[in-house]
Design goal:
With 99 residues, the protein is an alpha+beta fold. The chain has one domain. It is built from 1 helix and 6 strands. It has a 4-stranded antiparallel beta sheet. Strands 2-6 form a two-stranded antiparallel sheet. Strand 3 and strand 4 form a beta hairpin. The longest helix is centred in the first third of the chain and has 19 residues.
Length: 99
């Protein structure tokens, strides 16, 4: 399982990469709402103080069997550039030059 904060961190990094690759391009796209739908497992721990952690359940997995209660949630994120507060613009081209 992956922590929810890691999923959001990785999404942020990929969006930042797309913004950097779009800089100076003749055609750019405004990035609107970003929706994530994930299955979460909740873990409560009393070690070192009460703490609740949210884990994103990975598809496929490693074949281990067990019982985990999960909930599906949808997050709607509204990305903004830190410097301007405006929605970011991205190019339509990937790192490999593919579209």
């Amino acid at each position: 399982m992956i922590e929810l904060s890691d999923v959001i961190r990785d999404l942020r990094a990929q969006l930042e990469q797309a913004v950097a690759e779009g800089a100076g391009r003749a055609i750019q796209f405004e990035l609107g709402e970003v929706e994530l739908e994930v299955s979460l497992a909740l873990e409560r721990s009393a070690e070192g103080g009460a703490r609740v952690r949210f884990w994103v359940v990975e598809l496929g997995g490693d074949g281990k069997r067990g019982h985990t209660d999960t909930q599906r949630i949808r997050l709607t994120l509204h990305p903004r550039m830190a410097a301007t507060g405006l929605p970011p613009t991205v190019s339509g081209q990937s790192r490999r030059g593919e579209r």
